[in-house]
Amino acid sequence: MKSEDPQLLRKIIHIDMDAFYASVEQRDFPEYRGKALVVGGPPEGRGVVATASYEARKFGVKSAMTSRKAQQLCPHAIFVYPRFAAYKEASQKIREIFRRYTDLIEPLSLDEAYLDVTEDKLGIGSAIAIAQEIKQAIKDELQLTASAGVSINKFIAKIASDMNKPDGLTFIGPSKIEKFVENLPVEKFFGVGKVTAEKMKRQGLHTGLDLKQLSEQRMIQLFGKTGKFFYHIVRGVDNRPVQAHQDIKSISAEDTFSYDLDKGEELNEWLDKIARSAYKRLQNHQVFGRTLTLKIKFGDFKQITRSTSFATPILELEQVLEIAKSLLEQADFDGKKVRLIGVGFSNFGEARTKNNTTGYQTSLFDL
């Protein structure tokens, strides 16, 4: 860690809830405990797995897998629809526990967040001790388990939290980081998806040690702007701060139909429901965008979007419904049927309430 200034070393914790949605269901409904549970749409339609209990994961069931595939892998699995209100309530209580120790909290989703405890509120001093206390509080107060990763930066802490799931706690200190990163498969690196991983492997790059042999210039030649980031991250250097607040960039709602729809009255009815759902989310967060986007995915999986923007925020539901319907009427279906439709809002600018009086900012943890 020669390139990291010891004076700037942070104490970062990454908390990742264990099979969060499924764990909330098993907590709230005792009949699901110890069972293979899948949270998502039913296998009879076009359901997708949101998450699965560890009992189901043993059979290869994973998030984002189709429910039909999940049922094939685990025929005895129980399928339940998500209850997002329950998950949001649990995540808010988890965040209240975080706040006992620090205000530097960067939520990534309902079930995971970074915490900077370099200066913790209670003066505990040890990031490991804080992580242990947080995990225990979540277990005692919410009857849920979390895994934690502790290190000097976000990249290492996030990888560490995934190493001993469920209910794990992994610390990777400064002296261990260099060797740890060298042994990491390229797929584990932040920003390396399937396509980039395959590209790396075609270049004979399989581990952090392989990447480390490349110069910064060569990294940029191969991977563009992210090459510079890879060059530093492979050396365990990640100076990204924990950001306590993040502006909302967009809010949307969408639905996949159980069967493909023609352009007509039924599709208009669905559009009305989805637009109302998106508008309700705007109201919940009291932000109103200037741009409305209609998303259409056809039966052949091809997708189009149509947007329209205004000088002032779209405030009224009637406006939303009228604009969405107009965009749908203008869209060229080319004789295709529709598989999915969505309505989204963006371009919040200085996001304002409907009363147009105060600026408003919310955390992604609350979405």
Automatic annotation (TrEMBL):
It catalyses: DNA(n) + a 2'-deoxyribonucleoside 5'-triphosphate = DNA(n+1) + diphosphate. Its EC number is 2.7.7.7. Pfam families: IMS, IMS_C, IMS_HHH_1. The record marks Y21 as: Substrate discrimination. Keywords: Cytoplasm, DNA damage, DNA repair, DNA replication, DNA-binding, DNA-directed DNA polymerase, Magnesium, Metal-binding, Mutator protein, Nucleotidyltransferase, Transferase. It comes from Pedobacter albus. Its cofactor is Mg(2+). It is an enzyme of class 2 (transferase). Gene3D superfamilies: 3.30.70.270, 3.40.1170.60, 5' to 3' exonuclease, C-terminal subdomain, DNA polymerase, Y-family, little finger domain. Residues 12-193 form the UmuC domain. This is DNA polymerase IV. It is found in: Cytoplasm. Binds 2 magnesium ions per subunit. Mg(2+) binds at D16, D111. One of its GO terms (molecular function) is DNA-directed DNA polymerase activity. Monomer. Poorly processive, error-prone DNA polymerase involved in untargeted mutagenesis. Copies undamaged DNA at stalled replication forks, which arise in vivo from mismatched or misaligned primer ends. These misaligned primers can be extended by PolIV. Exhibits no 3'-5' exonuclease (proofreading) activity. May be involved in translesional synthesis, in conjunction with the beta clamp from PolIII. Its main location: cytoplasm. HAMAP family: DNApol_IV. Belongs to the DNA polymerase type-Y family. The active site is at E112. The keyword Metal-binding applies.
